[in-house]
UniProtKB/TrEMBL annotation:
Protein name: Response regulator
Gene it is expressed from: pilR
Keyword Nucleotide-binding found: yes
Residues in Response regulatory domain copies: 5-119
Ranges where the Sigma-54 factor interaction domain occurs: 137-364
Pro residues biased stretches: 396-420
Source species of the chain: Pseudoduganella buxea
SMART domains in the cross-refs: AAA (SM00382), REC (SM00448)
Amino acid sequence: MSSPRVLVVDDEDDLRELLEITLLKMGLDVDSAADLRQARDFLAGGDYGLVLTDMRLPDGLGLELVREVTSSGRATPIAVVTAFGSADNAVVALKAGAFDYISKPVQLDQLRQMVQSALKLATPAPAAREAAVDSRLKGQSAAMQALRAQIGRLARSMAPIAITGESGSGKELAAREIHAQGARADKPFIAVNCGAIPEALMEAEFFGYRKGAFTGAADERDGFFQAANGGTLMLDEVADLPLAMQVKLLRAIQERRVRKIGATAEEPVDVRIVSATHQDLARCVEQGKFRQDLFYRLNVIELALPPLRARLDDLPVLTDAILARLSGGGQPAVLGPGVLDALRGYSFPGNVRELENVLERALAFANDGVIHVEDLALKGAKLAATEGTVPTQAEVPPPPGGPASLPPAPAATAPQPPLPDLTVLPSNLPEYLERVEREIIVRALAQTQYNRTQAAQLLGISFRQLRYQMQKLDIQEP
Ligand SMILES: Nc1ncnc2c1ncn2[C@@H]1O[C@H](COP(=O)(O)OP(=O)(O)OP(=O)(O)O)[C@@H](O)[C@H]1O
């Protein structure tokens, strides 16, 4: 088999030579063009595993080549070399369909990483091929089919993606799917809930710290960026990031480098950023809560997840998949007469997560593996008045058992248990508080048969807060 061929397009002799030599050393065949005209000639005559083009060329812009290659229907990844500090160019190129970009002065380690990622796209990993056949995002509606197709395309680039959609509509699942279908599938996928990290710990959590950087930093620790190196970092609820952290994040994304707290040197990180929020980020920018420059950086490509009530045709496929999962490999429960109609009439403010909760609870009541309408306990919930009516979030009352991630009912008037009798003070307060927190959460979960929605309500916290604390304290479901 011949080695993959790369086309380098650059009019600066020194840089072109540097790129050529680096690529040749990687065992690749290289063709070089000094302008657009030559590049077009090469492209007309052959197939390339990667095209690497400078942005400014004597007879036009590299961007034109990006558009030509992406609209030609070929699967050739094309990356651009941007001038130092021209972040805007990088975003424009990514929006036009570039696979990735690299800034001048070119760092050879970054160049090699990028080339390797590009070449992997030509030979998808086994996991990626499987994922393409059997997506975890279920649904046969036109909206879901279009979404899956879009994800397939987005998985082939490094462009930052901003996923929008209501709570429980599958944003994290979509992000995982993009990761699983891309060249980074065999590297980590790290999801971070930006709203659940205390502000004081944020920098340490994102960038890590050196031993002794602050009181309590007993060992050196990596942050999310290092943990996701080579893979994907999902910034969930990105609108909740405090402004000070937004500045630091923007820098890390632009420079592709981070510095641990207490470290003198920066380290390179190769991370694809996917962000998600159920808020209107553009509105947050208008209100001054979110930085315009970070918004521009994160929002290169938008992926919108439709709410479940806008794709009720997916209910049969979704219920089948959820019941199969809940059966744990045994005989899945079936839906009795009228159940699908009852579900169709419901507005699902908590989307697919709520459907999962409804079915899980119904299963506990169902006899002989058949779920009946009354087992759904949808009675108290407002039903969509007529088919096709889409209630707004504000109109929709919480479903029985609580919506998955909507804020819990205020517990201001509920009596609180007395504080523990502390005749002996704890010698390590954080450790002690963790123990208390763990004990409380485990009890709440036991009391609700591990229904996390109900446990969160019981404790007056949101579903996501509970999920985050369970992850942090490593509390597993039995
Ligand atoms: N299309 C789908 N097919 C199968 N399962 C789905 C689908 N969409 C969502 N789910 C399931 O619904 C649950 C919620 O999905 P996910 O966590 O991705 O939503 P989210 O939009 O990120 O929610 P939140 O905003 O609360 O974080 C998960 O258990 C997920 O597996």
